[in-house]
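Help: why these numbers?

___
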Amino acid sequence: MLKRQLGTLFLVTCLILTTVPAALGASSTQVVTVAGDGSGDFNCDGKADDVQINQALESAARNPGTTVHLKGPFTYDITDSLRIGSNTILEGDSGTKIKLAKGLPVWGGRESSIAEKKAMLMVRGSSANDVTIRDITVDGSQSDYYSSVRLGTSCYNMATIINCNGLTIENVTFQNGCNDAMLISKSSNVLIDSVTVNKCGHDGIYAYHVNGITVKNCKFINRTNSSVRFDSVTDGVMKNNECTTSGGGYAGLELQGSLKNIEASGNYFHDLPAPAVVRLNTKETNVNIHNNRIENCG
């Protein structure tokens, strides 16, 4: 009898222990799949795919630690922002593209504040922690649908990330955009690695009031403005990047505002219409620009 009771107690204890992590809100390791061929947890048809992708991202927000995987090869047309919550990974297969749909009302504009800069990719709510975006192509559709939009007028950002602590963007291509590829503001602990920015409409990376950002192993093909802009940044690193032009644009690195603990090294700046590094009204503490290769810059 005692042996049977002990066995029952052991079984009940094991069942309790297996349910404790969920009850305590432990991070999920779930993968939610979005597909264009009917095989996903959420399925798109190539029109207004932001609806299904945001449903997947909402599911991930309820289960921190979830990966939202966009199945490829497929082009997901979006008519509204994709909003990524805390402790979420948004990733894609090879050949996965997120493309701005045609016929949309204007997003943003010069009269808008940074907080109002709507974009293709944004954080959910007013803030987020530990967001990862990787292995996708983000296409701003400028030459396809929005060629009449004046570049650099704050319309149709590709990514606007505000109030994010812990942001990783890696192996992502931003192309064919009307404005910034990545506008990052009031954020910290940012890593941008192995990203390609090909012909955006403003800065490749515009970091404004950011504490802790590393940009490395990236390629920037300028069309308007600079590859990287550090404006009021503390602990900023730019290393081992290539910065060039498609025939327009500005500097490789643009420095503005109050800057502390900035390092730019190992970069290859070439064929730019402006100097490789430009300073505009800076107040600098421990800013080190060294060991960069510079060829044919204005």
In short: Residues 82 and 121 are 5 Å apart (CA to CA). Confidence is low (pLDDT under 50) at residues 1-25. The longest strand covers residues 277-290.
